[in-house]
Q: What sequence folds into this?
């Protein structure tokens, strides 16, 4: 089997104009970034506004493990398979963050014969969207500190500034810092914090807005601080939203690329699902639904994070609903949840499958609760045995769900045609989307509903600071907003060490803050960090480039 980078380098890409023509996009509606990637113009989006929507398919997964689940690979393979069975399809994905690329997992553009290309560009600077988001975020931060320096007419309390700087890199040393040191001209000394770009409110806003005007309004609504009278101060009070919007004028446009089989793929936005809402942009998803019969998208990490937020935040705000959901599971991941060490996952172990199936069961139950038809995709690895595959199929059948093997990694679209056909059948089933909680619930009711229904906790414990923040946020009139829980991705609970389907525990909420521009309330549970750190051996140590510009180690 060739490596991912070998497959990517040997793939025959088509000029991006030819990919666009498959979707009836004209050259005038593209803004090329080289030969193989382009921005989709606002003109196309306006032209498509009256066109009928295609079916939306959401791909999610069981809880992630070191064994890997292959959600993106399955998503891409499904899109390629749709074209093989005669369906017009477009894939809609998130952009990778540089933090994980150089941190723990390397590239994030699929794998094997189901990749998006050019994978090195996509994993690195791509079209500059994340740089623009970082710049817009830090412009606002600079304007806050400049306002303090220039007289502070808004009477901003430096100890009550809640907006932070960001960087699209894993850098734990910047989690807490002191800025403004030096002479009088060097600013007001105060404590500052950094978060990774993909966890910022600017990223969330870009992915939830519908136009430049909507983007500007949402930017203006960002709560940045409180004054000495404990009154809220917003971005619009500094008149920063216009300049920020200028920096984001190109970043708001979706990016068009292709797969290894030349299937069109829109990549746009990239909020993390463990510390943000985990979905690509509303503009990209809605554009994909207008361009094709089937738009296949994914939500980050496990279904308890990405899929839950896709439904309760994105679908609620964008007024969209998936026609079918695909839950990706692997034999290896289930055995890992059943207590098998990573180095022993190649050995057949039905007892471990049985033990680990509690994780699969929980995710199936959670997803069925949304009222959308569900298909389980068994992402195939060469070490899987027939007995193990059949055991998972029978287990899913016992829960009333069809499980289909996908061999997207080793065979591309041809390895996922059975999955594509089953998903198409699921899309024709009548369904009604059900949210986990109504808007009128209090914030505590929403948190506790998620904790008990989705995370299987017995209840919720709040720190005094979290309780104070909840009361303050509701008093400001934001109680009707949905909640975005930031927690570990490795467990359905808030403890990364609890595998399978934990029970008998209480979710700990330690901090709550409002993202008033994006329109949701962020709830930090457990020990989750909004600025990750690099591991002992970062992926960056294995990434290199030769004198001819050929990159190695990215995959």
A:
């Amino acid at each position: 089997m060739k490596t991912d980078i070998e497959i990517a380098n040997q793939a025959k890409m088509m000029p991006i104009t030819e990919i666009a023509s498959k979707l009836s996009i004209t050259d005038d509606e593209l803004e090329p970034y080289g030969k193989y990637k382009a921005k989709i113009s606002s003109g196309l989006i306006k032209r498509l506004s009256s066109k009928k929507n295609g079916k939306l398919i959401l791909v999610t997964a069981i809880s992630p493990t070191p064994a890997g689940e292959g959600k993106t690979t399955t998503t891409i393979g499904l899109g390629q398979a749709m074209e093989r069975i005669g369906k017009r399809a477009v894939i809609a994905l998130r952009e990778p963050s540089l933090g994980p690329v150089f941190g723990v997992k390397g590239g994030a553009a699929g794998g094997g014969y189901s990749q998006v290309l050019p994978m090195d560009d996509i994993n690195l600077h791509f079209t500059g969207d994340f740089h623009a988001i970082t710049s817009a975020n830090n412009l606002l931060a600079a304007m806050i500190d400049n306002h303090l320096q220039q007289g502070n007419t808004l009477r901003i309390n430096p100890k009550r500034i809640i907006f932070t700087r960001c960087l699209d890199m894993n850098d734990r040393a910047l989690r807490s810092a002191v800025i403004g040191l030096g002479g009088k001209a060097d600013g007001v000394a105060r404590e500052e914090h950094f978060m990774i770009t993909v966890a910022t409110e600017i990223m969330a806003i870009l992915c939830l807005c519908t136009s430049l005007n909507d983007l500007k309004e949402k930017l203006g609504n960002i709560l940045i601080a409180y004054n000495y009278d404990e009154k809220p101060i917003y971005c619009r009070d500094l008149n920063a939203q216009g300049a920020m919007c200028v920096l984001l004028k190109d970043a708001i446009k979706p990016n068009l690329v292709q797969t290894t089989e030349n299937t069109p793929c829109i990549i746009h936005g990239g909020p993390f699902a463990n510390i943000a809402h985990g979905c690509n942009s509303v503009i990209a998803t809605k554009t994909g639904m207008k361009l094709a019969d089937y738009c296949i998208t994914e939500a980050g990490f496990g279904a308890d994070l990405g899929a839950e937020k896709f439904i309760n935040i994105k679908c609620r705000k964008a007024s969209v609903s998936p026609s079918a959901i695909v839950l990706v599971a692997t034999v290896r991941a289930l055995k890992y949840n059943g207590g098998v060490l990573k180095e022993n996952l190649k050995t057949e172990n039905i007892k471990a499958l049985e033990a680990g199936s509690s994780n699969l069961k929980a995710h199936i139950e959670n997803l069925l609760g949304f009222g959308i038809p569900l298909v389980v995709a068994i992402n195939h690895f060469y070490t899987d045995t027939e007995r193990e595959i059949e055991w998972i199929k029978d287990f899913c059948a016992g829960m009333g769900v069809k499980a289909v093997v996908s061999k997207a990694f080793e065979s591309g679209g041809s390895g996922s045609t059975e999955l594509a056909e089953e998903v198409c059948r699921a899309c024709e089933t009548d369904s009604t989307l059900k949210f986990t909680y109504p808007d009128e619930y209090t914030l505590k009711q929403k948190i506790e509903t998620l904790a008990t229904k989705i995370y299987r906790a017995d209840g919720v414990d709040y720190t005094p600071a979290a309780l104070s923040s909840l009361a303050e946020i509701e008093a400001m009139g934001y109680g009707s907003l949905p909640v975005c829980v930031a927690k570990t991705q490795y467990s359905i609970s808030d403890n990364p060490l609890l595998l399978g389907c934990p029970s008998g525990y209480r979710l700990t909420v330690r901090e709550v803050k409002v993202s008033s521009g994006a329109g949701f309330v962020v709830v930090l549970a457990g020990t989750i960090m909004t600025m990750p750190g690099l591991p002992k051996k970062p992926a960056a140590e294995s990434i290199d480039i030769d004198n001819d510009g050929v990159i190695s180690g990215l995959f």
